[in-house]
Design a protein that fits this description.
The chain is α+β, with helices and mostly antiparallel strands. Helices cover about 25% and strands about 20% of the residues. β3 and β4 form a beta hairpin.
Length: about 270
Amino acid sequence: MASNKRERELARMRAERQAARRTANEAHRRKQRRSLLIGASALAVVALIVGVTLATSGGGKNKQTVTTQPTSSTSTFGNLGGSGSCSYTRSQVPSTKPLDGLPPAQNVLTTGSQKAVLATTRGEIDVTLFTSKAPCTVNSFAFLAQQKYFDGTPCHRLVTSGIFVLQCGDPTGTGSGGPGYQFPDENLKGATYPAGTLAMANGGPGTNGSQYFLVYKNTKLPASYTPFGRITKGLDVVTKVAAGGVAGTGSPGDGKPKLAITLTKVTVAKAS
């Protein structure tokens, strides 16, 4: 009799231990599931931010704190002929293509407007540059164009959802290339981005480099991207590329354009 009672007591203790283990295991699984959900939510937020940001890899982390000395006023490159001064700083990421120094920082033109011609494999795009509103940005753009930095480079990113832009200016075609320098934002007060706008892409405040975007449909963006030009001819070239959609299986509505477009030559005329 005593033996049966002891067996029942041992069975009861085993059952209690098993129940306790099951409870502990379930609590652990719930904790794991909660952690995974939190991680997934964080990743979703990051993906959303990345998806709508017109970013380049030359973010604030790459910016040096020491401002370089102005280049010689005798330089054959840059938008010279005025009295303005600009600040260009070396970035830790070197230029994707060889360049003759930095854009001139003194005697920069600050008045009027200029015409840029973006010859592409899909047709010509003519742009009026806002020299008086964004003189240092236009100076950099002219500096790069004069050294053929943009020639033979693809427009590497098309966005057709949320914002409506074609991004260009990276010779690597990856979105990670730049000219080896950065400079501050301009013309941001009250900035809007209607169809036809030409504006700088960036990786945060004061990180402008060589990448820019063409707006082909009215787009709402924070006033964080320097507008420095307006398309006067050839917007149909951009809209045709946009109508072709995005290639690949990346983020929906954000990736390389199916209709590949390459800048064959970019020129900037003297100020009018």
